[in-house]
Design goal:
By secondary structure, this protein is of the alpha/beta class. Helix 1 crosses helix 11, helix 5 crosses helix 6 and helix 5 crosses helix 11. The termini are far apart.
């Protein structure tokens, strides 16, 4: 049975929503147990007695705040995130979910769990909503501020493998984010990356920002600086559109009547753009599943992050990434 480590203290709102999300996951899935890392006295009060046989509490009281420097993570060996990462490193847990300090989580996962053979830099991947039924995976969205062509090539391999092994999309199509669809578009890094990624099956070439939301490709590759701006912009646009719709609906009785009829449509839209539906972003490229959740995660988001960790741990994603990097790198040399 899979065991998932949870940084129970790292979120913006303390352990309550994290433990509530864990309990929701336990209620809906009988095929895993958990190790909740945090203040034992506090956590025991939050876990219903009926679930204590499936939750082990690993006592840790030091919590890294969002204002702490990620460079201090290695020194804070008694912190909840360090202890949770160590459980995975020591194979006492199969995966980790953290809504805490994302920089600390990335650094510790990379240095303590280690990278998959052939991976230069891990990448954070996130699912973006589209006009189609399937979402688009975008990576990197924040792990690397500067990426070279080789990094982008590795992101493409990892993203395609994730979509196939974890999400279940065979023959996932990969696109390289650029300022135009033509092969000649882009800066020197993307032009070089284009040549490398062209060795991968189902490479669609360059794509533009709008293609992410059209669902024309399954995976979009970019460096972490651009990807993080893209992610934050998309979140802001979705929030703004929602507010504009609400304001306009309040202006007339006809609009209010229409709102009643459109309630189901708006509800479906909210589901598609709500980060809680996806739970968290996988850190691809490390030797075990690491799911990084939003600091403001509610119980639903934590539940779905745990499910994502379970799906990743149940796959052979790491082996597939390693094998494909070897295979496509040898094509590059030939």
């Amino acid at each position: 049975m899979l065991k998932i480590a949870i940084d129970a203290m790292g979120g913006d709102f303390g352990p309550e929503p994290i433990i509530e999300g864990l309990v929701l996951a336990l209620r809906n899935n009988n095929n895993f147990t958990a190790i909740a890392v945090g203040n034992k006295e506090q956590l025991l009060k939050l876990i219903p007695p009926t679930f204590l046989n499936r939750v082990e509490i690993h006592d840790a009281t030091d919590v890294m705040s969002m204002h702490d420097s990620a460079t201090d993570a290695l020194k804070r060996k008694e912190s909840t995130i360090y202890q949770a990462i160590e459980l995975v490193r020591d194979k006492k847990a199969d995966a980790i979910v953290s809504a805490g300090h994302s920089g600390a989580t990335m650094s510790l996962a990379t240095l303590r769990i280690g990278r998959i053979k052939g991976v230069s830099r891990p990448a954070i991947a996130t699912l973006m909503p589209t006009s189609e039924t399937q979402n688009t995976l975008v990576l990197d969205v924040g792990a690397n501020v500067d990426s070279d062509a080789k990094n982008l090539f590795e992101f493409a391999v990892m993203g395609q493998a994730y979509m196939q092994s974890v999400i279940g999309i065979d023959d996932a199509i990969v696109g390289l984010l650029s300022n135009g669809e033509e092969e000649s578009k882009g800066n020197e890094v993307t032009k070089e990356a284009y040549k490398l990624i062209s060795k991968i099956p189902n490479f669609a070439g360059n794509v533009e920002g709008a293609d992410i939301f059209k669902g024309t490709v399954d995976v979009v590759v970019c460096d972490g600086f651009i990807g993080n701006i893209l992610l934050k912009t998309a979140e802001g646009v979705a929030d703004t559109i929602g507010k504009i719709i609400k304001k306009n609906l309040k202006r007339s009785l006809i609009s209010i009547a229409g709102a009643v009829l459109m309630r189901k449509v708006f509800k479906n839209l909210k589901v598609r753009v709500d980060y809680a539906e996806y739970g968290g972003a996988p850190l691809l490229g490390v030797k075990a599943p690491v799911i990084i959740s939003h600091g403001k995660s509610n119980p639903k988001a934590i539940k779905n992050a745990i499910f994502q960790a379970i799906n990743s741990a149940s796959s052979n994603l790491d082996d597939i990434i390693e094998q494909r990097l070897i295979k496509y790198s040898s094509k590059e040399q030939n």
